[in-house]
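Collaborator request, handled under Task 6.
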Amino acid sequence: MINRQIRFISLVMLSLWLLVGCAKDNHYQQLHITKQMAVEPLQTDNQTLAIAFGGGGLRGYMHLGVIKALHEHGIKADLVTGSSAGSVAATLYASGQSYDKLESILMAFSEYDLMDFVLSKQGLVNGQNLADWINASVPQQTLSAMSIPIGITATDMTDLESVLITDGNPGQAVQTSSSIPGAFIPVQHNEHLLVDGGVLNVVPVHYARAMGADMVIAVDIYCGNQPAADKTSIGVQLATFRLLACRLSEDEIMSADLVVRPSYEPKGSGVSSSKQVGVEAGYQAMMAKMPELKSLLGQVD
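Structure tokens returned to the collaborator:
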């Protein structure tokens, strides 16, 4: 009887190992990482418009709606920054591909395909599937080769500060910025441990300024519509983290020239209907702010 139980447990463990897999190496030495005070601004005599794409998980589909509204009105950013889920939007936008192409990429996206679960004390998800997906979705091999300047945030848990990724592999940069503490295995860069950029920069407005932006559109998909916490343990923990992150970032978000806060809270996984609702929420929020944006830009309908 005991031998049978041992064999059963061994079979279960082997099945889990084959299903989940082992952790891969997340040591990315080629990323160019800088602190805010050392960021080199874009040199131009023209007025510079930036979009700061904020983090927010599955709420990230709202970024596509914002991009759609700007596209319809012929408004293009000169540079972009992104944190966490916002790093995905920033990277796709900076790649210079058409709106239709970006829409097809994101609507075909499935978060389940990116969940490369692992057996590791460092986290439950490796994150390299996300990096591979980003690299397959953009034509550029480095951030510096993008159509417009881009900065992607990360949180340095060694020096306990926010940092900006301005060059290196796009997928690795997005993976780093999206490495949710406790869920994703952190990224190692030299002697530094890097996690989700949204820990200290929910919407990276200050970095957009540091990169040379005269005007910044802050797209906040996380802090403007926070519901009350549900009564489960994990629900309270997630709501607590969200509350702290948003309170920490509120002054930075509101320092933008224009703040766009779509009103939508996803209830489940990113099924097609939820994606469409998220995109529409982002679109409507940006359209509501369009007169104000055009006034800032000196445009007259």
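The cover message to the collaborator said: "The first strand starts at residue 32 and ends at 34. Confidence is low (pLDDT under 50) at residues 8-20. Please let us know whether this matches your experimental observations."
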